């Protein structure tokens, strides 16, 4: 009988873990989480948060368990960043707040030994 | 600080421009932008630099990297910016102190493992940097010999990036044994003593070497036309240091296919095949304008064997550089002037089958073919050729002679002495060779003696010679006189000069 996968090892669970870590990180920096995993046909926004400056930040989180395939943020192509822009505007339109200040942030979570991870947070990257 | 800078050189023809490489590492998504009109090889530098840095255990910034090469309007090409880009990147990351990076020129292509590879155009790049006030340069080890010609600068040869970083961080490096810059006189492989007989051709070659007169050799196959031409650089005076620098700079731009040693002081000898195109002859190219055969032969000899077989217009494309001593090539990427002061030696068979000489008994060509063959050498081109000699097939008497002919070094000594006389005579004039005396000066201050002029004017009256031909003979006569040690060309000198112009009635 096949043994059950360790839930910590599936890609989805790694991704969800990274998003939790970043949400925690944002909260501890005084930001308010407005939305998580907002999804439409075009794609998904991982985290929507309001920084204490009032700016709304749309956060794309990339989580990796090793650097074997390059830096996590390198996988954000120009196509992907354009989609993030569209999604951000979509969220603002859906919540009737087009015109407020917003920015797109990217965060990388790199898993190390069990229980250890490092965070890289790049604000306003696009 | 996340800014770093270093210096490189962009070459436009022989002219170099100092280029400042600025690197900014900003927050943002990982990316790499290269600004400042790079060509393909330069755009590819990103991947070479990245691999080289990573393989030398350096950090690659996973952030937004902007590399700007200024002046931004100047198109830049080639892989020789790899090294300065890598250095500026490391300086921006504070991996190396910036004290050296701001006043040192870096040249080199990076291999993926961090080795520093040879690049083209090292000498002209160094000259440009020196003119801009840079006195230290890091060059690839493989280019060290060439770089040392620039003895005014401190040259630091490096074989790989790690070695270079060690030096930048600690100031220590393996002391490189400075190669002695001995200008190599060039042990000529070909010596004139190999040539049996051919006294007229020998005289013509010697006169041609003294005055820089272009030469046409006409004769049947196997008579020794090519032998004479190949031995020609051996009787030209050695190049001065500045001339040697010029020649090496051009050959350096042309790339690594030249066998000529960068330190050689012997005159270059370039012999393009008669199928060469016009672009091969004068230079060109769409992205990168390269010097052609006539620039590679600068300060030396351009020898074209089987000249009448050349393509239409190929020989005539040489008329302009023959006249001006330089060639300007205009392409969409810009226009570039290369120097092209060369001595032209053409060799031709007398007819398509090659046997129409002497009594021409074995010649199988029709008389029309014979006439048409040499007329492929156009009139305007022939006008620029002072000396035309027939190289006859050797007779048994000449072949039987056991002693060798005169050697190159003896002839060269006479040529050097005669040139010294000429340059002393021309010390207040802007030219230095007899072939360069302008017509006006020939009519006023540089006339042969009266009896010689009478002889020439008689020939002119009998329409044996044109006015332009008369001037050509006068110039040649000065070279003959310099060789003979006469202060002014005598009747004898002038007659010799006249006979060296005649040959086949072109």
Automatic annotation (TrEMBL), chain A:
GO molecular function: nucleic acid binding
InterPro entries the UniProt entry points to: Restrct_endonuc-II-like (IPR011335), tRNA_endonuc-like_dom_sf (IPR011856), UPF0102_YraN-like (IPR003509)
NCBIfam families the UniProt entry points to: PRK12497.3-3
PANTHER family registered for this protein in UniProt: UPF0102 PROTEIN YRAN
Name of this protein: Unannotated protein
TrEMBL record, chain B:
Any Pfam family the entry gives: ChlI
Annotated ranges, domain AAA+ ATPase: 211-395
SUPFAM superfamilies assigned: P-loop containing nucleoside triphosphate hydrolases, Ribosomal protein S5 domain 2-like
GO molecular function, one term: ATP binding
InterPro entries named among the record's database cross-references: AAA+_ATPase (IPR003593), CHLI-like (IPR045006), Mg_chelat-rel (IPR004482), Mg_chelat-rel_C (IPR025158), Mg_chelatse_chII-like_cat_dom (IPR000523), P-loop_NTPase (IPR027417), Ribosomal_Su5_D2-typ_SF (IPR020568), Ribsml_uS5_D2-typ_fold_subgr (IPR014721)
UniProt family annotation: Belongs to the Mg-chelatase subunits D/I family. ComM subfamily.
Name of the featured protein: Unannotated protein
């Amino acid at each position: 009988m096949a043994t059950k996968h360790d839930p910590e090892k599936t890609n989805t669970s790694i991704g969800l873990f990274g998003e939790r870590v970043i949400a925690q990180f944002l909260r501890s920096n005084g930001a308010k989480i407005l939305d998580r995993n907002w999804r439409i046909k075009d794609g998904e926004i991982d985290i929507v948060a309001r920084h204490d400056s009032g700016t709304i930040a749309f956060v794309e989180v990339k989580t990796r368990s090793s650097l074997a395939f390059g830096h996590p943020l390198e996988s954000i192509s120009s196509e992907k960043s354009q989609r993030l822009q569209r999604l951000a505007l979509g969220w603002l339109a859906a919540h009737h707040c087009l015109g407020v200040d917003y920015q797109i942030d990217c965060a990388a979570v790199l898993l190390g030994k069990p229980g250890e991870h490092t965070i890289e947070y790049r604000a306003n990257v696009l | 600080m996340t800014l770093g800078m270093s210096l490189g050189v962009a070459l436009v023809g022989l002219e170099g421009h100092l280029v400042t490489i600025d690197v900014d590492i900003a927050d943002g998504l990982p990316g790499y932008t290269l600004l400042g009109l790079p060509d393909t090889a330069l755009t590819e530098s990103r991947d070479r630099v990245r691999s080289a840095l990573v393989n030398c255990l350096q950090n690659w910034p996973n952030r937004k990297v902007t590399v700007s090469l200024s002046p931004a309007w100047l198109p830049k090409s080639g892989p020789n910016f790899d090294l300065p880009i890598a250095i500026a990147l490391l300086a921006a990351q504070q991996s190396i102190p910036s004290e050296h990076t701001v006043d040192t020129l870096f040249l080199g292509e990076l291999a993926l493992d961090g080795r520093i590879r040879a690049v083209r155009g090292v000498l002209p790049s160094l000259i440009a940097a020196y003119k801009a006030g840079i006195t230290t340069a890091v060059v690839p080890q493989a280019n060290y010999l060439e770089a040392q010609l620039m003895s005014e600068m401190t040259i630091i040869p490096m074989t790989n990036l790690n070695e270079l970083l060690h030096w930048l961080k600690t100031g220590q490096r393996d002391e490189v044994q400075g190669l002695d810059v001995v200008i190599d006189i060039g042990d000529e492989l070909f010596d004139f003593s190999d040539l049996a007989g051919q006294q007229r051709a020998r005289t013509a070659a010697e006169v041609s070497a003294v005055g820089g007169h272009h030469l046409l050799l006409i004769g049947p196959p196997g008579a020794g036309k090519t032998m004479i031409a190949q031995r020609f650089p051996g009787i030209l005076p050695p190049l001065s240091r500045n001339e040697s620098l010029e020649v090496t700079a051009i050959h350096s731009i042309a790339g690594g296919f030249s066998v000529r040693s960068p330190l050689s002081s012997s005159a270059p000898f370039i012999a393009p095949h008669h199928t060469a195109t016009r672009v091969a002859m004068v230079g060109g190219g769409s992205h990168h304008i390269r010097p052609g055969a006539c620039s590679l032969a600068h300060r030396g000899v351009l020898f074209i064997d089987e000249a009448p077989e050349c393509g239409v217009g190929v020989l005539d494309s040489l008329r302009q550089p023959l006249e001006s001593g330089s060639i300007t090539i205009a392409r969409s990427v810009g226009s570039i002037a290369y120097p092209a002061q060369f001595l032209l030696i053409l060799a031709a068979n007398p007819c398509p089958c090659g046997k129409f000489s002497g009594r021409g008994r074995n010649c199988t060509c029709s008389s029309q073919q014979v006439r048409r063959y040499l007329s492929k050498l156009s009139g305007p081109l022939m006008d620029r050729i002072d000396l035309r000699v027939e190289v006859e097939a050797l007779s048994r008497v000449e072949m039987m002679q056991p002693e060798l002919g005169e050697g190159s070094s003896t002839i060269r000594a006479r040529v050097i002495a005669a040139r010294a006389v000429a340059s002393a005579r021309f010390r207040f004039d802007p030219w230095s060779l007899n072939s360069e005396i302008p017509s006006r000066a020939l009519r006023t201050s540089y006339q042969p003696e009266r009896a010689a002029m009478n002889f020439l004017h008689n020939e002119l009256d009998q329409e044996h010679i044109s006015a332009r031909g008369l001037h050509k003979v006068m110039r040649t006569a000065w070279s003959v006189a310099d060789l003979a040690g006469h202060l002014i060309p005598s009747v004898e000198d002038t007659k010799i000069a006249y006979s060296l112009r005649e040959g086949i009635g072109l």
